[in-house]
Amino acid sequence: MKKQGFFLGSVILVASVLITKILGLVYKIPLANMVGGTGMGYYSVAFTVFMPVYAVAVSGVPSAMARMTAENMAFGRYRNARKLRRVALVFFTGMGALFSLVLIALAYPLCKYVVNEPKALLSVIAVAPSVLIGAVISVERGYIEGMRNMIPTAVSEIIESLFKVILGLGFAYAAIKYGMQSYYADGSLFFSAPANSNEAKIVVIPYAVAASVLGITIAHAISCGYVVLSLRLGGDGITPQMLEADPVTDRMRVLLRRLLLLVLPIAVASVISTLTSMVDLVSINRCLKQAFEADYTAMMRQYGGAVNETTTSAMLPHFIYGSYTGLAMTVFGLVPSLTAMFGKSVLPGVSESWAVKDTMRLRKNINAVLFAVMLLALPCGMVISVLSREILQLLFGGRPAEVAASVLPLSVLGVGVIFLCLASPVFAVLQAIGRPDLPVRITIAAGVAKLVVNFLLIPLPELNITGAAIATTLMYAVISIWSLVEILRLTKIRIDFAKIFVKPAFAALLSAGTAFLVNEFTKDLIGNSFRLLFSVFASGIIYIISLVLLSVLTKKEVKALFFR
Predict the structure, then answer these.
(1) 10 Å Cβ neighbour count for 269?
(2) Three-state SS sequence of 322-388
(3) Is the dihedral of CA 181, 23, 522, 504 positive or negative?
(4) Of residues 477 and 562, which shows the higher confidence score?
């Protein structure tokens, strides 16, 4: 199996994520238009309840598998790598099955008593099997990535996103159509009898969301099947001669113990991060209600337009939360999901160079990933901040009330995009150099800061949901800066701050300024979609010119990124 260098591996993964994110938008935008802010709230509740369980059972498995596999391959322990995969599959498949059953069993009390949203119950049950599926696919992906082959991961993610669109939207549409036809036929709708058609539209929403989530689970299973078959049919590149040269393997319990020692801190950090999202779910709604109580007139002046046939004034806090998570947070996660792939791709290389004490190669890998991340994150984050309204109107034009509720939070989150983009790769580096405990400590401290800011800012009527965006941005700023400081302290390497951070930041400011000015000057000349595309295109041209003039991008640097 041919190994892929950092940048080639990153390009493969980033290309796949770009495709999956486009498909994700193709899924999310029609879904938001079908079920509205309230329905997106149920969707967010289901995944917020699901993610802590998923994190306990699965998080950390891909990176731990990739690291151990890469180390085994670096030292020629090919038979040991194969044994590691078998042990991991047996153990984590069992864990996944157990936690899927636990989630199904606890779905009702979690929805009713913890998050106070019983209408999300069916969605939680529908997503529960994904824990088992995720356990299997995480082991297989981690093993393949440890072999420095990113193609199966990339293809599987595209397959999953494609079927997510087809099944997720198809099932949601079918649920709505069936439910409303049933109501118009005999007045009943999913074991209830709505008083009128407006009430029927409210009743059908949680069923449509649950149907869509079930489609996502099936898509995840199809993706898992592809990865398993790909490894079985295509092999892992280990030949019989390589196995003969490595007759000795570690005992099963030794492999499992080491794997768990790597997985546990990452899983804890993931659980803490996802629990922060769950506390967001609980705290944001409560704090929004406090904001309404503090100045009901001002809040209704801001959000009163959202009250319609499917949203009452009593449901407004949930509507605001659903709009924030379904629209603003969707855009917020687009760019970081691309840069996270840089972390995936750099992990095997950093693990190998750290294991053999190759400081020069370690420095090259870390500088490369930071450089690549900042080149993408800085302009994207700043442009999102200045064009938040136009971006939301382009993507969710059919939901003007939800867009209005999300514009200001997304402007703040644009800055957070930069820090979130940096957070995933620096965490990957910390894990690769044997300090997975640090992400746990850093995440706990940042999570506490986020929660404090949530409770301080969201109850203020003039800020309300924007306070959550400020808290999120602050959290990722703490995580990324602190993690980078720890990397420099532990590895003793030096990075070019001017080239990686300062010059690209200056170029990104010029780019964002260009986007803002072009958008403002063309408001009365062209429509929103063309204006946004023209603004982004102009800002991109200015950014590239600025990078060249600042000597950030040179022919030599581009060659160094593509060729090891």
Answers:
(1) 27
(2) HHHHHHHHHHHCHHHHHHHHHHHHHHHHHHHHHHCCCHHHHHHHHHHHHHHHHHHHHHHHHHHHHCH
(3) positive
(4) 477
Q: What does 274-336 look like in DSSP terms, one character per residue?
A: HHHHHHHHHHHHHHHHHHHHH-HHHHHHHHGGG-BTTB-GGGHHHHHHHHIIIIIHHHHTHHH
Distance, CA of 32 to CA of 41 (rounded, Å) = 10
Q: Which of 143, 133, 165, 135 is nearest to 72 (CA)?
A: 143
As a whole number of Å, the end-to-end CA separation of the chain is 17
CA neighbor of 384 nearest in space, from 423, 334, 458, 337? 334
pLDDT tens sequence across 505-546 = 999 999 999 999 999 999 878 887 899 999 999 999 999 999
Place of tokens 């913890």: 114
Give the residue-averaged pLDDT of 218-246.
86
The mean per-residue pLDDT over the stretch 425-437 comes to: 83
What's the token pair of residue 137? 């696919």
Q: What is the CA radius of gyration of the chain?
A: 24
Element (H, E) at 222: helix 197-234
Q: Which residue has the tokens 């069992």?
A: 94
**What angle, rounded to 10 degrees, do the helices at 528-549 and 359-386 form?**
140
Distance CA 26, CA 135 (A): 27
* CB contact set of 431 (below 8 Å; sequence gap of 6+): 63, 64, 67, 262, 266, 347, 439
Give the integer Cα–Cα distance in Å for 564 and 556.
12
Angstrom distance (rounded) from CA 123 to CA 50 = 10
